[in-house]
Amino acid sequence: MAFAGSNNALAWAHFRLRGGWRRSLTIAAVVVLVLGALAIATVRFDPNSNQALWGWTVGLLGLQAACLVFYIPGRIGTTIKADVQSKMIESHRLMPTPPAHAVAGYILGAATQPLVFGGGVFFVGALVSSAAGIELPRWAFANAVLLVFAMFTWVLSAYTALGGRIGGGIMGAMIMIPWFTHGFVFALLPGMTVVLSPVIGQSVFDFRTGITPGNMALPAVYAFAFAAQFYFATLCFIGAARAYRSPVEISFDTILGLCFLLGWVAISFAALRAWDDFRPRGWNPGKVDTNVQVLASLIAALLFAIGPVAANARQRVSWRRHVETNDPYPARRPLPIAIVIVIATLAILAIPFAPKDWARPATDVLLRSGAIVTIALIGLYFFFEWAYAITRSAVAAGTIWIVFTWAVPIAMDLADYSMRGLRDPIVRFSTASPAGALMVLWTRRDADTGNINFGVGVQILFALIPMCLWLIHFRRRRNGSRL
């Protein structure tokens, strides 16, 4: 079975169910005629025709973005979820189809017809943009940026529909939050700008700059963005293939989780290093200090580090059960958690070295930050291992625990600040939270060392609670009793 093309049974079947080439080409032809006629009519009745053509060019690119970035991912997700709910996917799993080919079939089968429609829009836009005085390479470049970003969202949508529980939330937040915050999230988390390539610099919707016939070289920022999108899409594609192969298999295991974390660190490092090049200029979000950007990137990286830690705990519980039952099926021992935490901590601590015109972080601040990250990840590992030992899913319990140990101390400080009118809202109770302690360390030069040490001590106590629960369960299981 082929990875793509008419020999991919899933792709061809879904494409044929939607009318095949006849319907696709008919829709594209109608689109070309209607849009072309409307553009010609607008020019004939508008005395300022050049401005109208510019407006048509931007509008056609917006239509292209709506089709590629919003419609096709929704169609892919709907197609896969329909097969999952109807149990048709169980029949597909019985076919001699490699999981990677099946995932590619779902994507291509749902995307081919809208892509033909997009080809018609591209043709009309090329004619309109040329009439408006915009070079064809500039129009083609804008469409290429949209297409590459759209392909990334297609893979993420497939992964979400096949069982990625947080994939849909990540994709929705990645696309919608920047618009709701008027671009402030880009200034706060520069790494997001690297993945959202259509908004880099003047954005692809600004046709005053970009690729010209005399300069056909791909800008370095877009080359890095394309590489980042390909990297994350590859991880999500592997996860989707695993979820297709087995609904009970861990789609994002320890290795993929670490790779995802390292990818976030890499794009954050690049964006902080060359922020003037990546900075979107279509919004005016205001200025964010470099230390705040570093802090936000650190906290985001710490949140991403929860993924490989939780996956490692689940894999270790599964591996122990495999050994205890003497299952003859081969099973690989998971990566030691000490190695996972060391890699995650070192990667997170590399972020503060990214900005060029910024003082080198103090050794004391780095050491304390490393201790905070390590304590948080150790406590979460024991919590997830204990939770997976007694239940199938630990998502809800883990979320409650993180809110209790991370958000509640900060909320207590905010409540104290609102009632007493203190000078700084994040100073006392917040140090008991990993995120709050990092805020104090990286945003206050006169941070109280004793207060931070006390907060770290409280974090150690929080980490000891799941460690004790895990130890009690482990001893009872070893003695043959149940918790």
Query: If you average the pLDDT, what whole number results?
Result: 85
Structural class estimated from helices and strands: mainly alpha
Q: Please give the share of residues in helix.
A: over 70%
In quaternary terms, these chains amount to single chain
Number of helices: 18
What value does the Rg take, in angstroms?
Answer: 26 Å
Compute the separation of the termini in Å: 49 Å
Q: For the report, how would you describe the main beta sheet?
A: none
What's the SSE pattern? HHHHHHHHHHHHHHHHHH
Strand content: under 5%
Give short descriptive properties of this protein:
mainly alpha, 483 residues
Secondary structure elements and pairings:
Layout: H1 9-17, H2 20-45, H3 49-85, H4 88-94, H5 99-131, H6 136-161, H7 167-180, H8 184-188, H9 190-195, H10 220-245, H11 254-273, H12 275-278, H13 290-324, H14 337-349, H15 363-390, H16 395-420, H17 434-443, H18 449-478
Describe this structure in words.
There is one protein chain. The chain has 483 residues and is mainly α. It has a domain at 289-294 and 332-483. The chain is 73% helix and 0% strand. The protein has 18 helices and no strands. The protein starts with 8 loop residues before the first helix and ends in a 5-residue tail after the last helix. The model is unreliable at 212-216 (pLDDT under 50).
